[in-house]
Please model this.
Amino acid sequence: MPPTILHIDMDAFFASVEQRVNPALRGKPIAVCGANARTVVLTASYEARAYGVKTGMTLPEARGLCPGLIVVPSDHERYTDVSRRLLTIYQDYTPLVEVFSVDEAFLDITGSLTLFGGGEAIASAVKHRIRREMQLTASVGIAPNKILAKLGSGLKKPDGLVRIEPQDVPMLLEDLPVKELCGIGPNLERALADMDIRTCGQMGRTPVERLIGRFGIIGHSLKAMGRGQDDRPVVPTGEEPEAKSIGHSMTLARDVRRPDEIEHPLIELSEMVGRRARRNRYGGNVVTLTLRYADFQTFSRQRRLQSFLNDGMEIYLAARRILGTVRLEQAVRLIGVSLSGLIPDTGQLPLFETDQRRNRLLATMDGINDRYGEWTVRWGTLIAGHPHKAVISPAWRPKGVREYH
Model:
């Protein structure tokens, strides 16, 4: 029996959650944005999308298209809580649920078909429960594999349900632009266009040798994608490969030119990285600093350390040493800090008493922040200003090192 895969994509997720919480926003054009003055639109309601407002737009751009736009600050704890509740609904129909992002999931329902009456019955039941229990809507794609299921969920948004049968695939993909397939971003789209490949049908007919010659080993995947083939399994939550790094980044409130102006956000980010590493019992020995200039040119520098660590201040000192080796050519708009070379933290007591005291202090601070909320207790250097809150990364997962608090 061929697999039956569902892809569930919540409709305008952040905006819909805010409209559910605040009835006064229902039916209104709203944009969910971050707290930073230079934030971009994270999600727009369908009422705002009717004016052309899109994810990634700056607020001035969005307001130029929709003068009556209502801007709502994002509440990431609210969205991740809703995502976890959605996961419990999905798991009532199959244990094979892969959280793809905070508002998307794949379900392998092959083994559940006879129990619940077939693929469309399961998809309809899930949609009904989401509407009844969460007061939200979702679009669902049903297909023999993940890439087609994700394609299907986007074909009739919002509140859609599309089934793609194997015999329908050639006609569906023939004139479909390659950018409609998950995994083909703007850069890859341009590179394919340079080869006169603009549709999935063209990509599927291109000799694999030609694709490999241009793109290397991923040429095999591109050929398969163009033909609607995908043998990737649904990986259940909790069984994903371990993350290779732990990182955070922030866009600054204004572009800065002096290294000393980077110090405060550098400490914040390093503390956030160390906190997540300790929560998940990891240490790392490679610290990476990422900078993005005002013209969006982005680069990274890293430093390998003598020992494995998860203390935010030690991560900061390593990042600051990296910064000292960089000659800033432009003003900086974004900073990122990450820790890699991860190994499990065994909890072994340090040899020296000063290190033992430091570990006890960090454990106490973590305990207080776990109970009362992030940044309840923080170093004196971070007292000034409003601590940065992590945004929801596309790599967010409901547990493990990819779970951002």
Remarks:
- The CA atoms of residues 12 and 97 lie 21 Å apart.
- The radius of gyration is 23 Å.
- The first strand starts at residue 5 and ends at 10.
